[in-house]
Amino acid sequence: MLDEAEREELAKAGRTRKLKKGETLFTAGMSEAACATLLSGALKITSTDVDGRERILSLVHPSGFVGEMFAPYMRHDVVALGDSELCVFSGPAFAEAIERYPKLSQALLRRTQEDLYASRELLALTGNASAEQRVSGALLSISRAASDSPCHLARRFDLPISRGELADMLGLTIETVSRMLTRFEREGAIRRDGKRGIELVDPALLPLS
Amino acid sequence: MLDEAEREELAKAGRTRKLKKGETLFTAGMSEAACATLLSGALKITSTDVDGRERILSLVHPSGFVGEMFAPYMRHDVVALGDSELCVFSGPAFAEAIERYPKLSQALLRRTQEDLYASRELLALTGNASAEQRVSGALLSISRAASDSPCHLARRFDLPISRGELADMLGLTIETVSRMLTRFEREGAIRRDGKRGIELVDPALLPLS
DNA sequence: CGCCCCGTTGACCTCCATCAAGGAGGGTGG
DNA sequence: CCACCCTCCTTGATGGAGGTCAACGGGGCG
What we know:
The structure is a homodimer.
Chain A: H1 4-13, E1 15-19, E2 24-26, E3 34-40, E4 43-48, E5 54-60, E6 65-67, E7 77-80, E8 84-90, H2 91-100, H3 102-127, H4 131-146, E9 156-158, H5 163-170, H6 174-186, E10 190-193, E11 197-200
Antiparallel strand pairs in A: 1-8, 2-7, 3-6, 3-8, 4-5, 4-7, 9-11, 10-11
Helix pairs in contact in A: 2-3, 4-6, 5-6
Chain A binds a DNA duplex (30 and 30 nucleotides) through α6.
């Protein structure tokens, strides 16, 4: 999307930063406009409700974008799921870069639309679906993300997140997620391989497919 | 954001279209890249799951943007909630306009980010919250949207959607929404005025506030 | 008037959250 | 090397929130 010179110029406007697993990049309410692109690792965007329960709003993969470029404060928490490397920009610096490079805003527009659709997909998934459908939908979605082509299922993959995080993402509890995985395995749809490994034995057996 | 000449030029690239209440603008899966801005009225973006239940992913207000500019097919249904007027563009025509007017992609980026946050807010709201919290959250959010300032509550407003649509948006049933409204009224938090009218008598009594 | 759609209310029952207990690594220190 | 602990996962028992089914009310319209 951007050419080499533009990329370099942009990189100079930001500053790289490393995060360890569990470290926080942004906190909701922080009165600062800043944003970042993820170079390696994985992040989660979360919000915490009044009774202290965490809800995962989005997972961020390398080349993903987080933060606020227009709003004066952060709307959500951003936390590293594993050791990660980012390129962080101040809000004004990034806004200036956008003015300077029209292609940048186009690229970002594209990516933001992807994020928007991912968010709506999650919304649809957690909407009226049963726990069974949510977990199977998440498995299929993660399998798709793990494969090279976006509409192809990876037969064998590792869950990028823990049971608890998966539960937080789906609006379920750890126990329910665990029960569903057990059920899918008993029914021969999947096979569990260690804590994180999943093999899709017969995806057609998963509800909703 | 755009100046007058740009606006006019853009308007010429599109074609205005009127929709009556309930008419469909786009259907999910349609293999066509097209998009539109809403001039007046209101739209809903929905997805229908396997068992035929509809889920409202977003409400679109005037100056809102819907459709696909990059993807080759429509991901969701878009339906008019009331009589509406739009300016419709073909995907390629709009992509060209974006190339031509850098400010357009910046403006659209801003709006898309707003949509993204709205979507995530809804995600957070429908995540782990109880039916009580969801309905009260929706009331407050609609009240905020109905007032002139975005962080101020309108004391008296009309629900832009029916009970059924509100239920579809919150992942609840009509009956539950109805029961919650009854409860809020009994507890003195709101007063119902006809089918659609709501008056916030004591917003502090609403859970979660 | 009679129909139809939308909303309300009640009775029941299902699904999932909650509470509780136990198992399986994996890391640390003796 | 083993004992210990800690975190993550699994499994079971129980109860409650909300979905489902059913009946009724009321306003708009032909």
